[in-house]
Amino acid sequence: MQETLSTTTRHHDNLIQIIQSYYQLTKPRIILLLLITTAGGMWIAAEGQVDPVLLLITLVSGAFASGAANTINCLYDRDIDYIMERTRHRPLPSGRVQPLHALIFAIVLTVTSFTLLTTFANLLAACLAMSGIVFYVLVYTHWLKRHSTWNIVIGGAAGAIPPLVGWAAVTGDLSWAAWVLFAIIFFWTPPHFWALAVLIRDDYAKVGVPMLPVVEGNEPTARQIFYYTLALIPVTLLLVYPLHVMGAVYAAIALLLGGIFVQKAWQLMQAPSDLQVARSVFKYSIFYLMLLCAGMALDSLPVTHQFTALLSENLQSLVSALP
After folding, report:
1. Which of 31, 61, 168, 245 lies 20 to 30 Å from 201, alpha-carbon distance?
2. What percent of the chain clears pLDDT 90, i.e. is strictly above it?
3. Is 15-171 in CATH node 1.10.357.140?
4. What is the pLDDT of residues 73-95, one digit of tens each?
5. Whole-prediction pTM value?
6. CA quadruple 270, 271, 276, 279: dihedral positive or negative?
7. Rounded CA separation 63/23 (Å)
């Protein structure tokens, strides 16, 4: 298969098509979620007052680091991507981009990301971004993805690094709150990806990737999705207590979003082979993470602090006035 792929070349007609192909290599939809968690980490660390220049540079650097990791993933998986109908038309298996060119592209992105973070943020943030690339490529893509049903659980740590990068870029260190952000993404990842794996179970089975639905079946997978979703809720609330970096606004948002997530996971556990329910869980998991980070940003704003303090004073006055 590798020989067939290496001899298949398709030429681009113009510069725009070339840019589109390299852009697709980075898996931009995945990058967007990672950048949202990076921004969330920065926003909390800066208590709602992020330096816009630092925010922009950190997000651009994070996009480059994630793009490099995803490009290497595409390079490594081009053999199975060619077999699966869903991925056959990606730049590498389709022959639009040659493997050597993809590798050079990934190296350029990596060096640029490290240089930007070291220059405009700090060395810790840069090293964390590089550790994310190494973990995703070596631990997840090379070691776990094709060999263990734990691929998503352990490999999910790579996707949990971006909020650490954001936090370190602002503060220069890592507090307990930063590691809670890491844990939130870590527990969120299995329900998110296993719901997707249920949807494309046949594709994974065709290429021998031991995703949990392929090896254990949909029913055990749905149970695991439910358990991880349940565990996710108390983890999100650690930012409220005992760490006290988030307040009542975030707590209410986290409980509401978490409750809906649990409800959808419960529905999937009742009908583990219903692809519409699995699709609903997968799509909601994306909205969940986006809205949870938005809740962090909202709670961190000074105006929110003023509003909640005023509301608390009024409630206390009302209670004290009661006979």
Report:
1. 31
2. 83
3. yes
4. 999 999 999 988 788 889 999 99
5. 0.91
6. positive
7. 11
